[in-house]
Design a protein that fits this description.
With 258 residues, the protein is mainly alpha-helical. The chain is 68% helix and 3% strand. A three-stranded antiparallel β-sheet has the order 1-3-2. The longest helix is centred in the middle third of the chain and has 24 residues. The radius of gyration is 20 Å and the shape is globular.
Length: 258
Amino acid sequence: MARSAARIPGIERVDLPEARQAIPHLHAYLRECILDGRLPPGTKLSQVVLAEQLGVSRTPLREVLRMLQEEGYLEFEPNQRMRVADLDPAELDADYACRILLETLGLSMTLESIGSGQRREAARLLTAMRRAARIGDLPGWFQAHHAYHRMLTAGAGEPLLRTLQSLEDRSVRYIRIYQQFEPGDWQTAGDAEHAAILEALAARDDRAALTGLAHHLARTALRVLSDCAPDYAPRAVPSAVALAEGADPAALRAVSAG
């Protein structure tokens, strides 16, 4: 008798809504399993086993797996088996470099419209992040964190905001790794940086706000890289910070060479 494939740890049966909403619901569930580590990098996936454990047919599952592959969370092996994508330090380096350049651009386009109301909302979001971190509410923290960063770039316009959202989505997996490596104080440095950006905005110190945002994003990326790929030498993130700070070409070349 043929031996059945092993069950995949962490995957539970899902209760899907009516047919039109089945694919988005299943996509959100499997994406979260990858992001929170229930499906670690390198995990091999069998459609037959997944469908059985999830309690779904293979037709919507194939579509969801295709979506996750397009988003970079899954990849095909040479024998056409699917596996959870490994962490890619070059991708993280590039994604965060793009975030540094585009978020500082977005902030520069938003500065004039940030008034007392926006600053009060940002302060409220900081409080929400602190509370969520204290009680271990990671979904709540991510929601407040996303809202804080979007407040900073709200004036950038929809096309740029869509690009920023895509970059942020790809960054979430790496931030989760940071949180796992530093379960006690992963929020500490970011909290201080978020507060410093807000203080610069209140003081109308645009340059400090812009460089503060660039360094905040860079520190997150460099810390995750040091944890998950200590032998990787980042180039894109330091170069993006130098550009955001208005470095001259010679200084930029020195950063890239270093």
